[in-house]
UniProtKB/TrEMBL annotation:
The chain crosses the membrane at residues 12-32. This is Alpha/beta hydrolase fold-3 domain-containing protein. PANTHER family: AB HYDROLASE SUPERFAMILY PROTEIN C4A8.06C, ALPHA_BETA HYDROLASE FOLD-3 DOMAIN-CONTAINING PROTEIN-RELATED. It comes from the Eukaryota. The lineage of its organism: Eukaryota, Fungi, Dikarya, Ascomycota, Pezizomycotina. Keywords: Hydrolase, Membrane, Transmembrane, Transmembrane helix. GO terms for molecular function: hydrolase activity. Residues 137-350 form the Alpha/beta hydrolase fold-3 domain. Pfam families: Abhydrolase_3 (PF07859). It comes from Apiospora kogelbergensis.
C-alpha cells in the first residue's frame, strides 16, 4: 500500500466499511435490474456477464482508491515445488539498449513465478529427459501495471485454458513481474518478463516452443519484450498472443476512455488506469522516442519476427486504440499479425472468464490463435 493517508490502517478500515456500505446495496440493486434484459448495460450480455463485470468494476475501484498492491510471492506457499524464484541472467551483456541504459530507473531483479500444472526441469542425471516436446506458455497478467492478483488462483485458471485441447500447451509459467511505482517504473515489468524468458530458455526449451501470452498491461509487456528481442537480435519465441492489450499509455488516452460510453460499465475503472500511467511512465526525465515506443506502442509499430495474435472485446474501452495498433502492426512489411474482435465482450474477458462466464469465448479465441500460429 502506498505511503499516504491510506497508511493509517484504522482509517482504511473505516473507509472500507463506508465504501462497501454504499456499493453492496448498489450491487444488490443491479442484481435486480439486470434480470430485465433491456436494462442491462449491454442488452446482449447474459445476467452473469452483467453482474460479473459490475462486481469486478467495484473491486477495481476499491483497489484503485486504496492504491493497494498485491505483495509479490517470495516463498512457495500453496504453490509448493511449482514456485520458482528466478535470478536475473548472469550475462550482463543481455541487458542493453533501453534495458541497460544508465538512465533506466529500474534495474534487473529476482522474479517470482509459478508453474502450472507442473514445473519444467532442466534435464540432468537426476532428472533425465522424458523425450516429450514441451510447448511452454510464459504468461503476464494485466492490472494496469499496478495491481496484482493471487498467483496460485490466477495461474490455475489460465493454465486450465492454455493446456486444454483448444491450445495444447504443456506448461505455463505465470510471471509475477514487479508492480510499478514512481520509484520503480518502466522498464521494471518488462525486465522481469525478459528474465523469465531467459530462464525458460536455460531449462533447454527451444525458442520456437515458447509462446508469450499477456492480457491488458501484461499484453503491453509482451509487446515490449518482442520489440527488445528484435532490437537486440536475440532468440525469438514461436508465437505471441495479446488479449485486450493496453497500447496507449498516456493520460490523454485515459481521458478519452473516461468520456466514452464504455466507462459506464467496462471492467477496468478509469482511476486505476490513471494510476497505472502515472506509476509506469518514468518521472523526472525526458523520454526518447525509443522509450516511448516501448512504453506506449500505439503509433510506434515495429518489425516482428514472431507471429502475433491480437484479441479484443467488442464492448471494451480500449477497443479503438487496439484496432488502430493492430492495423499499424499489420502494415509493417514482413509482419504476420492476426486481429480478432469478440463481439459484446468487455475488457480482458480472457482472464476474467471464471467470473463473467466467458469460458466459451476464451476457448474460441485460443482455438483461433492456435490455428494462426500453426498456419
Amino acid at each position: 500500500m502506498s505511503s499516504s493517508i491510506w497508511s493509517s490502517l484504522p482509517f482504511v478500515a473505516i473507509w472500507s466499511v463506508g465504501y462497501w456500505a454504499v456499493h453492496v446495496p448498489h450491487l444488490l440493486f443491479l442484481s435486480l435490474r439486470n434480470t430485465i434484459k433491456p436494462l442491462r448495460p449491454v442488452p446482449q450480455w447474459s445476467y452473469r456477464l452483467s453482474m460479473g463485470t459490475a462486481v469486478l468494476r467495484a473491486v477495481f475501484r476499491y483497489i484503485g482508491a486504496l492504491r493497494y498492491q498485491q505483495p509479490l510471492q517470495l516463498t512457495p506457499g500453496r504453490s509448493g515445488d511449482r514456485f520458482v524464484r528466478i535470478a536475473p541472467p548472469a550475462d550482463a551483456s543481455l541487458f542493453r539498449g533501453v534495458f541497460g541504459a544508465p538512465s533506466a530507473m529500474a534495474k534487473p531483479a529476482p522474479v517470482s513465478a509459478v508453474w502450472s500444472p507442473a514445473p519444467v526441469v532442466a534435464p540432468s542425471s537426476s532428472h533425465p529427459s522424458d523425450g516429450r516436446r514441451r510447448k511452454v506458455v510464459i504468461y503476464a497478467a494485466g492490472g494496469a501495471f499496478v495491481t496484482g492478483f493471487d498467483p496460485e488462483m490466477s495461474s490455475r485458471f489460465t493454465s486450465a485454458l492454455v493446456t486444454s485441447e483448444h491450445f495444447g500447451a504443456t506448461n505455463l509459467l505465470f510471471v509475477q513481474y514487479r508492480l510499478a511505482t514512481r520509484a520503480d517504473p518502466f522498464p521494471g515489468g518488462v525486465l522481469d518478463l525478459f528474465t523469465a524468458y531467459q530462464h525458460v530458455l536455460g531449462l533447454g526449451v527451444a525458442p520456437a516452443d515458447i509462446v508469450l501470452i499477456g492480457d491488458s498491461a501484461g499484453g503491453n509487456l509482451v509487446l515490449a519484450l518482442l520489440r527488445y528481442l528484435v532490437d537486440q537480435k536475440l532468440p525469438q519465441p514461436g508465437g505471441a498472443l495479446v488479449f485486450s492489450p493496453w497500447v496507449e499509455i498516456t493520460r490523454e488516452a485515459v481521458v478519452k476512455i473516461e468520456h466514452s460510453h464504455t466507462n459506464r460499465y467496462d471492467i477496468m475503472d478509469v482511476p486505476v488506469l490513471f494510476w497505472g500511467v502515472d506509476a509506469y511512465r518514468p518521472k523526472g526525465k525526458a523520454l526518447t522516442q525509443e522509450e516511448e515506443g516501448y512504453i506506449s506502442p500505439m503509433d510506434h509499430p515495429f518489425r516482428l519476427e514472431t507471429p502475433l495474435y491480437i484479441e479484443a472485446g467488442g464492448a471494451e474501452g480500449l477497443l479503438e486504440s487496439i484496432v488502430t495498433f493492430a492495423g499499424q502492426m499489420a502494415d509493417v512489411k514482413g509482419n504476420r499479425v492476426q486481429f480478432h474482435i469478440t463481439e459484446d465482450m468487455p475488457h480482458d474477458f480472457f482472464v476474467a472468464y471464471p467470473f463473467i462466464g466467458a469460458k466459451k469465448e476464451s476457448c474460441e479465441a485460443l482455438k483461433r490463435a492456435k490455428l494462426f500460429l500453426e498456419g
